[in-house]
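In response to reviewer comment 3 from the previous cycle, which asked for concrete evidence that the modeling workflow produces usable outputs, we include below a single protein chain processed end to end. The sequence was submitted unchanged, and the resulting structure tokens are shown without manual editing.
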Amino acid sequence: MKVLVVDAANVVGSVPDGWWRDRAGAARRLVEALASRATGGDPVLAGHDRVEVVLEGRARAGVPESDLLRHPPAAPALDAPATDAPALDAPPPEAPVITVVHAPSSGDDAIVDRCAAWASGPGNAITLATADRGLIERVRPYGVTIVGPRAVR
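The workflow returned the following structure tokens.
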């Protein structure tokens, strides 16, 4: 599985657009933009099966911890009534699942834990979106690929 972990604090903080006045709103805008890009076939996001956005502190109030974008549901059961109506809000099959994770304290600690957990799975490839040098050093032992904040902004 290909997983993209997003250091939301670092990505949001990479653009001085007043995010510090409304951290929850900035987190919400980031997650909404990622969901929009994922359903639009963005090449960076579409190359992953899952995108995990890690929120910390006051940013957590902007988006509930959950899966925001799921793959389309399985085909209906054979006894379900037939319909010709398309699923209006279903993302394309190649769109990744987007998950919001609330860090209980340090966002960096939660990101390291997520990367370690994903790295323990056979065949998983983890990418981290951050420019935080200290965090990059902490995830290096897990074979994490790094992309800068611009890749997901």
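The chain has a mean pLDDT of 85. We consider this sufficient to address the reviewer's concern, and the full set will be provided in the supplementary archive.
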